[in-house]
Amino acid sequence: MMVPRPRNKANKSLPQNLYFDSRRSTYRYRRPTDGKWFPFGNDRIKAIDAAKQLNLEFMRGADLIGAVMGNSSESFAGFLNTYERDVLPPRELAKGTLGLYAVHFRRFRKQFEGKTVDQITIRMVAEMLDALTPRTANQCRALLIDIFNHAASKGLCPDNPAASTINRIEKKQRKRHTVEGLKAIREKSPAWLQNAIDLALITAQRRTDILDMRFDGSREGYLYVVQKKTAKVSDAAWIRFLITPELQAVISRCRDDVVSPYLVHQKPERWK
Fold first, then answer.
1. Distinct helix (H) and strand (E) counts, the chain
2. Where is each Core-binding (CB) domain found (predicted)?
3. What are the strands, taking DSSP E only, across the chain?
């Protein structure tokens, strides 16, 4: 098998043996056994998918040798276990994020069951993503890109099949509340939820950050808040709000006969 030509900047993101011809704006494949060139057209995704499949065919002989010598490729399921064990913990992700990842991991294991990391093609990934809603597809795509990036860094696959797919357009499903609608909801809400709504309107913070606001965070004329979602990645998560008369009125209403360090709280219901 011939030694492949050095990769220039235009070819770095392409599979081995696939090259971009900038003069014609087309792709071409160089057969590794004899160096013969084949035109692959101008469709990037189709060219990459075809090149990967051809590369796998040429690698089959090497795979058989590797299997005999104990150097067979790692299964996708096996590498996913490694990713969960070694890559995710240092990131200290939120419990909700890890729960969402677990759902996606089950989907990946079922979809790519019995496949090695380097056997998964763009088409396989695209077919899985096409069957999902745009939001879920984009979540899975982003996660797969990260997984295959780590696999490629270990030499387990020549490129990233997920990165060559296209992000889906998500149509917004939620509608903004009207002032009248929000007033109607607030009037029917219990006191603790009214306090939460008022704090959200004044501070414009996320739901989880509203629930984390504490009485001891109110000091020296400011209400101090740590944004949970960005606290581990940016100093901008530590913020403070000037306690205006409106904000002070809400904080004062939060103090009631229930002992709690949090502004938003409610008396727990008794077990029946």
1. 9, 6
2. 74-152
3. 18-21, 26-30, 37-39, 218-219, 222-226, 238-242
